[in-house]
Amino acid sequence: MAEASVEVVAGTLLGRPAEVRFTPVGYRWVHSDGATVTSSTPGASWERLGLREFSPTATSHVYAEPGEYTVTVEVALAAEYRFGGSGWQGIAGTLAVAGPAQQVLVGEVDTVLTKDDCDANPEGPGC
Q1: In which domain, by residue range, is 69 found?
Q2: Predicted local distance difference test score (pLDDT) of residue 4
Q3: With 0-12 CB in 10 A as exposed, 13-18 as middle and 19+ as buried, what is 71?
Q4: Is residue 114 assigned to a domain?
Q5: What InterPro entries does UniProt report for this protein, alphabetically (predicted)?
Q6: Exposed site from 8, 35, 53, 100, fewest CB < 10 Å?
Q7: Of the candidates 91, 102, 111, which has an alpha carbon nearest to the alpha carbon of residue 23?
Q8: Residues 6 or more apart whose Cβ sits within 8 Å of residue 50
Q9: What string of DSSP letters covers 68-127?
Q10: Predicted pLDDT at 54
Q11: pTM of the model
Q12: Backbone angles phi and psi of 54, in degrees to 5
């Protein structure tokens, strides 16, 4: 899950107050295996989405091979400005800001974290 929020940068221009407001409008995950995933939302946990663990989501990516990968998330920001107490005015385009790269270790395992077996507890992890 990526995290970004509305940010306002304030200052003075020509002796008058000026502000620029940046609002997150999109997210792009860049994977070192060449894949990209884009979303209008930052993603969320399976629990928050009301999904079972390991369910596909709008921000999921499946690697073809085990290994070490790098993932970078870029947040697309829309910008607006106001000067001297005026209303907000939009600025055309978006600004992409990349977060720090994260290392991901991908492996293949058999899930054994179950309470009882999958016949007795079909809702358990790994079932």
Answers
A1: 7-106
A2: 82
A3: middle
A4: no
A5: Ig-like_fold, PKD_dom, PKD_dom_sf
A6: 100
A7: 91
A8: none
A9: EEEEEEEEEEEEEEEETT---EEEEEEEEEE---EEEEE--------SS-TTT-TTSTT-
A10: 85
A11: 0.73
A12: 70, 10
Residue 116 lies in a domain: no
Please name the amino acid found at residue 37.
Answer: V
**Whether pLDDT at 81 is above 90:** yes
CA 17, CA 11: separation in Å to the nearest integer? Answer: 6
Q: How many whole angstroms separate alpha carbon 95 and alpha carbon 46?
A: 29
Closest among 89, 84, 107 to 16, alpha carbons compared? 84
| pLDDT reported for residue 114 | 59
Contact 29, 36 (CB under 8 A): yes
Is residue 92 pLDDT above 70, yes or no?
yes
What are the tens digits of pLDDT across the range 35-76? 999 999 888 888 999 999 889 998 999 999 999 999 999 999
Q: What is the CATH number of the domain that holds 44?
A: 2.60.40
